[in-house]
Structures are given as structure tokens and as C-alpha cells.
Give the backbone structure.
Amino acid sequence: MEITNAKFVISNTDVKKCPAGTFPEYAFIGRSNVGKSSLINMLTARKGLAMTSATPGKTMLINHFLINNSWYLVDLPGYGYARRGQKGQEQIRTIIEDYILEREQMTNLFVLIDSRLEPQKIDIEFMEWLGENGIPFSIIFTKADKLKGGRLKMNINAYLKELRKQWEELPPYFITSSEECLGRTEVLNYIESINKELYSK
Ligand SMILES: Nc1nc2c(ncn2[C@@H]2O[C@H](COP(=O)(O)OP(=O)(O)O)[C@@H](O)[C@H]2O)c(=O)[nH]1
Ligand SMILES: [Mg+2]
């Protein structure tokens, strides 16, 4: 799929203020700094579309980007940033949970996982919560350029092994690097296939 048009629409903290209408949307979530905004820029091939930062915990907003005038990419606030403090983290949790549970247009949630790290409790528990609530999600391993060949494979396999303890069937997963534009076609094709299915109904 070609992205011919990508534009920022609105930022807010309230799911009720997200754009009206029935366009399907694909949201990105994960720990602060995992690479959510970079991935949105990579997928849309527009460098400054989503704000990226080397400082974690910057975005506390739900950001909607309209793609090809027919569907949305959504950049969500990152979770698990300890320096936000207890209260800040609870605020973020409420924003995220309300969006995920209430936003009917959300067609698929991409959970981003840093491919360099061992399985983190916070991500594993978050996916468990998604499962309990019947939320459709896929996994995107990020920053693949930071690991050399063998290590990347080993890490991903170890992660999938950990997931199998919890899940009978694994969700779809993608390996990406925003630096090297890896995984772009795969993720966009996946979105396109879901869009096609939706519009054929
Ligand atoms: N090497 C490398 N760095 C990345 C990649 N994706 C993001 N980063 C860096 O990780 C930091 C956090 O990225 P950002 O997209 O702002 O993360 P977010 O908080 O999840 O939105 C920034 O310094 C990015 O340049 C990637 O694929 N490869
Ligand atoms: Mg961000």
C-alpha cells in the first residue's frame, strides 16, 4: 500500500474528543521510548509527523493521524515511565484504558516491544489485560538495527517462547527498525488487508 496522504488531525487526553466517524484506526502503544512515534514516521515516510524524543515520557496525548483520507494511525502515550510519579502514571493509565476499552473505531492495537530487552513484566501483564478484555492486538518488535543478526533472532525467539506460556496461539508479530526502514511493507500490508476485510463487509 502506498501512503499518498498523511496529516495530523488532533491531540487530546479524552477518548470522547477523538475524531467522529467510522474510519478504522490502528493504534501504537508500549513503554515510553520504545519507538512508537518513530515508527509512525517511518510507516508514513514523513519524518516530523509524530514528535519523537530521546527523553522518555514526553507524550501524554492521544494523537490522531489521518492516512489516505480513509483510516487513522494513533500514537498513544507510553506506559511505565517511573519518573512521571504515581499520580502521573495513573493519569496515563486512565487515558490509555479508556481509549482501548471505549474506542469502537480501534481496529487493531500494535503493542511495541524493544527487541533488545528480555520480556518485561509490564508488557506481559499489559498483553494479558488485552486478552482478558478481548482487544485485538499484534506485536511489533522495535529497534532491530541495534542487534546484530544472531542476537536479534535469539531475542525474538526467547520472547515468543515466553508468550507461549501464556497464549495458546500467538498474535501476529512484526520485526521493525525505524532507522533502517525494516518491516514497513509488512506492517502496511497487514493494515491494508484488515482495511480490505472491513470494507468488504
Ligand atoms: N536505533 C534506533 N533508534 C530508534 C528506533 N526507533 C526509535 N529510536 C530512538 O528511540 C528514541 C525514542 O523514540 P520515540 O519514537 O520518541 O519513542 P516513543 O516514546 O515510544 O514515541 C529516540 O531517540 C529515537 O530516535 C529504531 O528503530 N532504531
Ligand atoms: Mg512518542
